[in-house]
Design a protein that fits this description.
This protein has 17 helices and 5 strands. With 371 residues, it is of the alpha/beta class. The structure holds fe (ii) ion (FE2) (2 copies).
């Protein structure tokens, strides 16, 4: 597949470039990465450099046979033209013990490689590069991002081991975020989380930020703000138990897949309840963020007054975030289009009074550029 310069520029955060003279291999990689990344593939090194010069991809897969016409070292050329972009060497032979098989690249993979290894290597390097950039941000932004991503990762380890979440830790990790939101100073956080490769984390952090901002707008303070930020960060935690193929499937889910996807709500609740000190509000956010006012939501089909204010706020923020999130198979919807859709087409699903407040909040806080 070849993308024009504009498409390349738009997709840089999810674009992986493959440079390999072997057409079959390029196609295999493109197939393996569908649903995770867009792929731009190039048979010739110099052509790839020309095309990618103005729109750096998030990672480059470079075959060991790829060579520059000038005879220069290809990895060094990439480093010079695209500093900070991770390079993965693909080898047509066994990785030798000792020696520098990566030849200056960040990682190497021996062909044929497993799809899971490929995704793991790319994802690890992309995250490392994005998180390294966070170090250059002012402390309030850096801490908001680094501490929440660490907390999110450690929760995934706890879930794997069946151990309860430690609310005190999640709460502490969200403290810089709550401060930033309370000072209306969070736009940089939303901008800098965009390039991160863990979609679940990106979505959860966006929900945490917007939910606590919503709370701030309606006058909540202190503990209530921490509860909203923590609740946002863990609201979809059960998705960590949903298979990758369902979670990242481009396009429509069939009935069985939909059932699996929807089970993330009871999975979240079951897991969160293991933590005895967790405030009830955090569980309400996880349990009711897919409920709708007209009773057509899930998992319990709650209606009207059965949904308290917290659940109504969580539903609005979750829908808005999902619509404006970037996924590999869809462009993010513009915030104003998402809000219009929510008031026109979801009039009976969501609390329109709260939605009006939410809209005003976005206009005030981010001049119509939330997310
Ligand atoms: Fe959800
Ligand atoms: Fe969500």
């Amino acid at each position: 597949m070849s993308l024009g310069p504009e498409a390349l520029a738009q997709s840089r955060k999810i674009l992986v470039a493959v440079i390999d003279a072997n057409a079959e291999h390029r196609q295999q990689v493109a197939r393996a990465l569908t649903s995770f990344y867009q792929v731009a593939d190039f048979p010739l090194f110099d052509h790839a450099m020309e095309q990618l010069a103005h729109s750096h991809p998030c990672a480059i897969l470079l075959d060991e046979m790829a060579a520059s016409r000038s005879g220069g070292d290809p990895v060094r050329t990439i480093r010079r033209l695209m500093p900070g972009v991770p390079v993965i060497r693909t080898l047509n032979r066994s990785i030798p013990h000792g020696g520098d098989a990566a030849q200056g690249a960040d990682a190497c993979l021996e062909k044929p490689f497993r799809r899971s290894s490929l995704i793991r290597v790319i994802s690890g390097l992309v995250n490392k590069a994005v998180e390294a950039r966070w170090d250059t941000l002012a402390p309030q932004y850096r801490d908001s991002l680094k501490r929440t991503v660490d907390s999110f990762n450690s929760i995934s380890d706890l879930i794997d081991r069946g151990e309860p979440l430690v609310y005190r830790d999640v709460n502490a990790a969200c403290a810089p975020l709550v401060d930033a939101v309370s000072n209306h100073d969070f736009k940089v956080i939303l901008d800098n989380v965009k390039g991160h490769d863990n979609y679940s984390y990106v979505h959860s952090l966006r929900v945490a930020t917007l939910l606590s901002l919503f709370g701030h707008t309606i006058g909540l303070k202190g503990e209530d703000m921490s509860l909203l930020a923590s609740g946002g960060l863990v609201h979809d935690i059960g998705k960590m138990k949903i298979p990758h193929e369902v979670l990242n499937k481009p396009g429509r889910l069939d009935d069985d897949e939909l059932k699996v996807m929807r089970s993330h709500v009871p999975k979240s609740v079951d897991y969160l309840k293991l933590c005895e000190t967790l405030p009830k509000g955090v569980i309400t956010i996880a349990e009711q963020h897919h409920e709708k006012l007209d009773g057509t939501g899930y998992p319990n089909g709650l209606k009207g007054t059965q949904l308290n204010e917290l659940a109504r706020m969580a539903a609005i923020v979750d829908i808005f975030s999902a619509l404006t999130d970037r996924r590999v198979y869809k462009e993010p919807m513009a915030p104003e289009d998402a809000l219009a859709l929510m008031s026109d087409r979801m009039a009976s699903d969501i609390d329109q009074k709260l939605l009006t407040l939410f809209k005003g909040m976005l206009l005030d806080a981010v001049s119509g550029q939330a997310g």
